[in-house]
Amino acid sequence: MTETKVRSISPESRGTTVIGRTLCHETSACLALIVIALGPPPPILAQTSQSAPTDGALLVTEARTANAALMRQYSWTSRTEMIDQGQVKDVRIEEVTYGSEGQLQRRVLNDQAMSLPFGFLRRRVAEHERQKVEEYLAGLRSLLEDYTLPRTGRVQDFMNAATASGPDAGGLFEMSGRNVVVPGDTLSIWVDPRTRQGGRSRYRPPSTATA
Amino acid sequence: MSLTATFKTLPSGLNHVAYAEVTVPTRQISIQVQNFDYDRNN
Question: Which residues from A are below 8 Å from B24, CB to CB?
């Protein structure tokens, strides 16, 4: 198995960002970022301070489409844990499948927060907690989607504007672009040109947005 | 807020998010998601 890590950082002001409705949806979207990291041919990455090729965006789009199609043939288990103030507030285990129309379907197998307590006040508190979990889950999925450039246009824009430099001490080449998700932001992707694997990325919010 | 995601590739070539975590330090909240037991349906 190949393992790749992606790290993104967004401004707190975007804390209400919505994350896609389904994890798998953003999963396939996230893959785009990986493909971006792994897809561009090494000669391009070896260049310094030059624009990436427009062909890269096409490669990304094709790879994402193929992976999305393959993903629909699978079902899997998803375990979601929410930790609030150091305490586990909710553990949700779901079976995830694709429906006949290609939509994600989630069936909860075990949810510690499913049963609400008796008593009006306690119940209201529990309902509030549950709503908070749902909001953060939605935010998580949207965040993933935003950071993985779900639209071809964004991929194209990033690759057109990206500059490449490196290698760094670890042999990785870096591609960086600005105004990727929000104006003034920066997206950097590190790629190992030898293996074209093990890429990582970091999203930096606009400096003006960080309070 | 920070987001970390770990991806894995199955022998079939499928890439998927194996682990994702979002943390909101200012609110001391984090959400961790693990995806596993991928099973091909056909």
Answer: 12, 15, 136
